[in-house]
Records
---
Amino acid sequence: MKELLRVEELEKSFTMHHLQDKHIIGCSGISFSLNAGTFLGITGKSGAGKSTVLKSLYRTYKPTSGRIVYNSEKYGPIDLVKATEREMITIRKQEIGYVSQFLNVMPRVTALEVVMEAIMEMGIELETAREKAKVILEHFKLPESLWDTFPRTFSGGEKLRLNLAQAMVKSPKLLLLDEPTASLDNSSKESVKEMIIELKNSGTSMIGIFHDLDFMETVIDDQYHLANGLFKRVVGV
């Protein structure tokens, strides 16, 4: 099985300038590899550094040290720690998706337009993007009455479903999921599971943070636990 991602001794620290330049370690000593078409789940208590790991992989946080070697379609093997901002923008648009519990979109952009814009970043023309957007919004059970509505008015669950649709519709090579089932009812969780399985079967690799362990165990291939600064593989998954 082909390796897609290798992380070696990743560390991210923060400097708190308002606290006399105090340094806080967000995560350290993070090492693992991920093969194409597999799903790695990360567990741990709130504040352990799980989201810091994902944000460092996506490079919304610039890692302090370590290596993140990603096998890019466009650039070949590339260390995301050292990649330029231009390279990262291209990789985010075309290869790596990120789903957060929080929706961050431009004001006065409708839900349908949010998903269409994500599709068109892949070079797909307008009308095809519109049809693909409608299909995935239906899949995630976002009511059609909301498609032409501005997402700032949505509930937490509706925003999360829109986030999932926006990222998953692109079938990225790598998908990072930060609590993908938070605020979702059981029916919506099933929609997420169906899409995860479909993406895995088509070759998408995934890394996800979970508190819903029952859901996680139905979709992951490997598991790591982050606690007390240690990142350990859970045996027997």
---
Amino acid sequence: MKLLALDTTEDSCSVALCVDDEMRWRFQIAPRQHSELILPMMESLLAEAQLSVQQLDALAFSRGPGSFTGIRIATGVAQGVALGAGLPVVPVSTLTALAQAAFRKQGATRVLSALDARMNEVYWAWCECRDGVMRVSASGEQVGAADTVTAEDDEKAWGVGSGWFAYADALEQATGIAPSRVLPEQRVHARDVASLGLAALAAGKTLPPEEALPVYIRDNVAAKPIKKTPLAG
């Protein structure tokens, strides 16, 4: 399978390309430069692999929650490129991608992902790993004050994401997760978006690009129509 994944959720910008069992990526900390960097990064990876976008099987993207501007950029680019190339898309939860990073780095199988949502709140979700793939638990994705996060009894749980950097004390008290089992500086990375996208693609869980929308969680932020974005092939 050939899949291209992208993320512009936080202050970082990343793209990953998976061709069968080989993964390659680009990652850069670049606040407010996502729209300038994302297409050149995609084109660079495809050129390196000697592929055109039309040769891909699907495009995965981080659909949120996160920065409103960032997830709109990711959604717009993914939709536009996929429409132009006739590809399906795989929307991937940013919170699940963070949990996938904890599994990749620490073998974590229970993770509380938390992103700093500003206004003294966090986007959060409990995630669990099955067959190497992280999934959001039944409690779903939520937003709220760090001290209102619901604890789930699991002494082996890990915490990951910028929410743990901003509200460590409140989250530790709410969840019981020890500081030694927290990855507060882990950002969403396209390589983890790609891993989750591949699992969804293998399971036939793709969408036509026009049906893929950003997920904000917070307060009814309306999605606008997406313009077609060409990518050189």
---
Amino acid sequence: MKFTYYGHSAFSVDIKGITLLFDPFISGNGLAEAIQVDELHADYIIISHGHFDHILDAVSIAKRTTATVIANFEITTWFGNQGIANVHTLNPGGKSRFDFGVVRCFLAQHSSSFPDGSYAGVACGFAMATDEGNFYYSGDTGLSLDMQLVPQTTALDFAVLPVGDHLTMGVEEAIQAARLLEADKVIGVHFDTFPQIVIDHQNAVALFLSAGIDLMLLDIGEVIEI
């Protein structure tokens, strides 16, 4: 599968010619100025929670592409109120089959509200089982023992985890999370966007390596096959 990083926690995964776009926050990210939001394609948009730095560009992309938005009940309802007709509600504990594979929703340990401060439901993470590989996106979260439930249903090829600390897990906690998830490859997200979450890349990679885990910190716009 092809993985493209758009900065912060925004990324896309191409599976069998189907594009899954996660947490699109691009136009508000000063580090992602080279990314043209109006040119991004999506067949599905997966939203982990309601904070502005995860949904800022989601409505405009959904309207332009007619992508199906996958998120919890409160978030899909909010998108419906924005005029988005194609939504699929998935709450923690649930699973759904799509043309690219099976998605299971898990609880994330994080707050969640819309930009106006209203309640956006619980924060979520998602395990994706596809013909081209399996992965888990935790969304914004703290370390949780619930993560050990993920590999009971989905054997992971890699995990996408926040590493910026302060607002989510930091590097040390993300290493513990990877162990619970039984994932030996991690793509780090939610780092460097704001001064509070700037990290030492070299040290982070070294700490993961000492734990026997490969950490990838991609450049914005970087595309990899994984």
